[in-house]
């Protein structure tokens, strides 16, 4: 979810669910060690609980970045061992780390030793086309011995050659049964599952077998789905906000971000384009919020245009 689940996206998601655990986009150790720490780690108090997802393979670097995450107030540090992109492979981290379970264990141990918050791992169920269950079982066992108690299992193999990241989310078959088998073999560990979930029924089916479900792209493209989660999955009161009220809250947030950090509303609005997914008029509403010709207008004026019934006219756009 790089370039997707930034702080602005998470602010939207938190308006819809108070209980779901949110994750940052993957932040590499190099970006934190050599880049702008505030830009990568800044987040709002309303986002809790929120986990910082790190990409890296050097134990000392990961320990340094985990310590930064804890200092900035994150609730969890997550090590990405699932991203299959060639750019990530060139950095020797992501899914290719599954081939080096002892190195991952060393990375986890280095982080566990310096923070008091949970250190978790997100990984695939295999590499390339091998379907050997023993591979992922031994990976989880080795990393668990280093102090990791929570594993998020993306229930597809990662094909390191020949497939794009998008194809790696679609072509390798989903094998949910592998996560359920891991839970049986490691009953004391927390096992969550990720991959292809789009309905309440599919999530509930998995919650009978494992401890949690991670939802990525469907939550991004159809964020209103989150509005039911607190009631359905956490036995808590659901969000009382309507879609219109969520939009108004986001506009207020855009105004605050512009005033305090100089962030243009256009960089924030892209994350809420799915808010009216499936509703009449959603396409025209989405077009207004994504129309570059309106970038010179205040966000509140764009909301008025997006909600208006006549088509967007050139006179309003200039």
Count of alpha/pi helices: 17
User: What separation lies between the terminal Cα atoms?
Assistant: 34 Å
Mean pLDDT: 93
Helix percentage range: 40-55%
What's the CATH superfamily of the largest domain, by name?
Aldolase class I
Domain count: 2
Radius of gyration: 20 Å
List the helices and strands and how they pair.
Blueprint lengths: L6 H10 L5 E2 L3 E2 H6 L2 H5 L8 E6 L3 H14 L3 E6 L4 H5 L10 H12 L6 E9 L5 H13 L4 E9 L6 H4 L7 H10 L4 E5 L5 H8 L4 E3 L2 H5 L7 H6 L8 H19 L3 H5 L12 H8 L9 H9 L6 H4 L1
Parallel strand pairs: 1-3, 2-3, 3-4, 4-5, 5-6, 6-7, 7-8
Walk me through the structure.
There is one protein chain. By secondary structure, the protein is an alpha/beta fold. It has 2 domains: 7-234, TIM Barrel (Alpha-Beta Barrel), CATH 3.20.20; 243-317, no CATH class. The protein has helices at residues 7-16, 29-34, 37-41, 59-72, 86-90, 101-112, 133-145, 165-168, 176-185, 200-207, 217-221, 229-234, 243-261, 265-269, 282-289, 299-307, 314-317, and strands spanning 22-23, 27-28, 50-55, 76-81, 119-127, 150-158, 190-194, 212-214. Helix 4 packs parallel to helix 6 (101-112). The longest helix has 19 residues, at 243-261. The radius of gyration is 20 Å and the shape is globular.
């Amino acid at each position: 979810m790089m370039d997707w689940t930034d702080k602005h996206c998470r602010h939207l998601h938190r308006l819809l669910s108070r209980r779901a655990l949110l994750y940052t986009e993957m932040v590499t150790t190099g970006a934190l060690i050599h880049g702008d720490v505030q830009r990568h780690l800044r987040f709002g108090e309303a986002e809790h609980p929120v986990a910082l997802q790190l990409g890296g393979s050097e134990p000392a670097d990961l320990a340094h970045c985990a310590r930064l995450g804890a200092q900035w107030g994150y609730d969890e540090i997550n090590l990405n061992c699932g991203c299959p992109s060639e750019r990530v492979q060139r950095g020797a981290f992501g899914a290719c780390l599954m081939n080096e379970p002892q190195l991952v264990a060393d990375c986890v141990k280095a982080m566990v030793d310096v923070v008091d918050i949970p250190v978790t791992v997100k990984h695939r169920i295999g590499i390339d086309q091998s379907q050997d269950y023993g591979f992922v079982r031994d990976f989880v066992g080795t990393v668990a011995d280093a102090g990791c108690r929570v594993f998020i299992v993306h229930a597809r193999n990662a094909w390191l050659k020949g497939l794009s990241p998008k194809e790696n989310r679609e072509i390798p078959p989903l094998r949910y049964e592998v996560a359920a088998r891991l839970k049986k073999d490691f009953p004391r560990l927390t096992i969550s599952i990720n991959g292809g979930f789009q309905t309440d029924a599919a999530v509930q089916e998995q919650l009978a077998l494992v401890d949690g479900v991670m939802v990525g792209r469907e939550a991004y493209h159809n964020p209103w789905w989150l509005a039911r989660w607190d009631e359905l999955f956490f036995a808590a009161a659901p969000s009382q906000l309507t879609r219109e009220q969520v939009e108004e809250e986001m506009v207020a947030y855009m105004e605050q971000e512009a005033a305090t950090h100089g962030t243009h509303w256009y960089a924030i609005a892209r994350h809420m384009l799915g808010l009216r997914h499936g509703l009449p008029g959603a396409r025209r509403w989405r077009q207004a919020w994504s129309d570059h010709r309106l970038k010179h207008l205040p966000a509140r004026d764009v909301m008025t245009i997006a909600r208006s019934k006549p088509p967007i006219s050139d006179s309003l756009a200039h």
